[in-house]
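Side project, low priority. Logging it here so it doesn't get lost.
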Amino acid sequence: MARKRTASLPMSRRTEMIRIVTERGSVSVPELADLFRVSTDTIRRDLDALHDSGKLVRAHGGAVWMPGGDRITPVADRIGAETDGKKRIAAAASGLIADGEALVVNGGSTTLAFIKALAGHRALNLVTNSVPVLDQLNPAAFSNVYAVGGEYQPATKVMLGPLALSANGRVNVDTAVIGVRAISAAAGISTAFIMEAEMILAMTRLARRTIVLADARKFEQSAFATIAPLGEIDMLVTNAPPPPALAAALELAGVETILAP
């Protein structure tokens, strides 16, 4: 058991936090508060500061260590990256959606572009955990919009928590449209946080089909938390042909790959 420390100055405390997270791989807010004899609010502020500086990754209820500097890029930065490719993917994916469908969509810059591309649709129903999606959708396209709750993640601007809709069995969703951090033959689809992976998986299980949106930079990458194997998805919409190993794995899993024009 780690020895409890007396309350320390922020800089020395944060340096020690980095060491602890690096050694353990992950740590919770209550553990750190108990260890350093400070409040959980103080620990949350420390973790937010360390996350913003790229020293570790803020996770639901604590922090995780990402080997190789695999950290979360704020969604505002990701929106401006590879804009043309994301718009092409979004346009191609929107063409797969019929008026009147019920959709569940997670947070991310590519899924945000997808929501914007639905502006000409009508009578859609939407379930999402993304604050930017709620803020930037075209109200004329949607008959009903449902926001799912949880703990707000400032960097990605999403809510993470149990997907209560999946438990009541009374929600009928046609399509899950999912953005991911990585897709590979070996690891399937993955993302940064365990809680986020669990929530995305629950979203896919609400729907009759799952469409993954991923640009070529995500190919043969692997993030911290696995969402699902390739066999759990139905379509991949992307902006470039996948490399041979991934293309073969997608075909074997029965995933239809759609290249955005």
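Brief comment: The chain has two domains: 10-69, 76-259.
Revisit when time allows.
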